Amino acid sequence: MKISRRNMLKISAGAGAGLLLNELPAFAQQQPQLMRAIPSSGEMIPAVGLGSARTFSVGPPNPEWVPLGDVMRLFHEMGGRFFDTSASYGTSEQVAGQIARELGIQNDLFFATKISTGGGREVGIAQQEESFRDWQRDVIDLNQVHNLRDTDIHLRTIRQAKEEGRTRYVGVTTSFGGQYERMEQVLRTEELDFVQVNYSLGEREAAETLLPLAQDRGIAVIVNEPFNVGRLFGAASGRELPDWAAEFDCQSWAQFFLKYILSHPAVVAVIPATGDPEHLVDNMGAGIGRLPDERTRVRMEEMFDDL
Ligand SMILES: NC(=O)c1ccc[n+]([C@@H]2O[C@H](COP(=O)([O-])OP(=O)(O)OC[C@H]3O[C@@H](n4cnc5c(N)ncnc54)[C@H](OP(=O)(O)O)[C@@H]3O)[C@@H](O)[C@H]2O)c1
What we know:
By secondary structure, the chain is α/β, with parallel strands linked by helices. The chain has helices spanning 5-12, 17-23, 26-30, 65-77, 92-103, 121-135, 151-163, 180-189, 210-217, 231-236, 253-262, 277-284, 294-306, and strands spanning 35-37, 44-46, 82-84, 110-115, 140-145, 167-173, 194-198, 220-224, 267-270.
């Protein structure tokens, strides 16, 4: 059953979890989400996560929060766990933390955030402390150095928190091709649990060096900007999904784009962002059923390049 706007509002108005499950599409109730292992620990996490740059950066509690509450609740109900945010995403970390607390799921989610400053050690430490407060958590699951800003300084801060048992995993991120050479050096020289990088049908450069290198080094890859910040939908606009997408259980362009990413062997999770509950349900469908094989991946690339 498709989730309608009316059902959404009913959910927001306080329907219980049992009723909410009835509102979910049949596929979500029958089939488990794709799980992947974090190489450094073996811990399994659901491969479809949720990003929050822009989407969760809204003002103090207001009507905009209603769909965001639905997005987060449905994400959790459908088996999602990996939630990515950053100190520098406006109010995102704070808003998401408050919504997660109100839903009572803030300790269930895999809380991934970032230190994001070129302002030195003390500012980085202050951001980290703010993250604990925003989510009222004693432990951050993953803290990352955002866009390689002051990498050495903030890696020390995050590692110290890991030694103290306040952070479980250490990572670094980028979404800029111009940083790939530096990122390569960081991946070769640092002990890391995670790397986050942009990779999509529209931007495939990370697959040349960074993804295989991370895989060799046992570093979990998280993929950001999986829709190339929404541009992929523009490229596919007005085009029919090819019939052969059904061969890997794909029912929408969003699932086409996400399943392409998830079928790369280095990828542990992908973090599409949305502020729309119906898009959230669509995106979670990418974690269900078959994935394209190597031959099909090439076919997807050729098709996308012809759009
Ligand atoms: N350096 C870094 O660390 C870094 C850099 C970039 C991003 N990130 C992380 O990665 C996350 C994802 O990247 P992103 O937010 O830049 O872009 P994205 O996930 O590639 O694209 C988001 C856009 O796609 C749209 N969308 C989502 N699902 C859709 C669907 N099923 N159908 C149609 N449209 C859909 C969203 O609009 P709607 O809201 O209308 O659905 C939004 O406009 C970020 O939120 C952030 O957490 C990290």
